[in-house]
Design brief:
131 residues; mainly alpha; 82% helix
Length: 131
């Protein structure tokens, strides 16, 4: 088990300087743009911050997760495809666990981390409060 974790850690770190490195910037930027757009819409619609609502509103959780997935699905799939190509080029093998980690970090994490704060900032700005 330790060997597997060490390999995963080394492989994930190796992506920073390897081929197709542009995706490590491009995909989070695309997810962030979508999150900003959705966060501004949330502020206009007077909705609570996205990630907070997922954590605290069990009645709305399913709908919110579907909405978020719909927004980042294309970026997630693109991250999966590009990482498959990367793994075939570098490792001559595909590691599904690493694939899912990278796709989540590049597509979903920025969306989750940005949408709520954009909502809060837009709401505070609209109401004339200091952020």
């Amino acid at each position: 088990m330790e060997d597997v974790l060490a390999r995963v850690w080394d492989n994930l770190g190796g992506r920073i300087g390897g081929p197709l490195t542009f995706r490590l910037i491009l995909q989070p930027v695309m997810a962030t743009i979508l999150a900003v757009k959705a966060g501004l819409q949330d502020a206009r619609d007077h909705r609570p911050p996205y990630f907070w609502a997922i954590l605290t509103s069990p009645d709305e959780r399913r709908e919110l997760l579907q909405q978020g997935w719909k927004a980042v699905a294309k970026i997630f799939v693109l991250a999966v495809v590009i990482d498959v190509v990367y793994q075939i080029i570098v490792f001559r093998w595909v590691y599904p666990g690493e694939l899912l980690i990278i796709a989540f970090v590049l597509a979903c994490a920025p969306y989750l981390l940005v949408r709520g704060p954009v909502n809060r900032i837009a709401t505070a700005t609209r109401e004339g409060r200091h952020v």
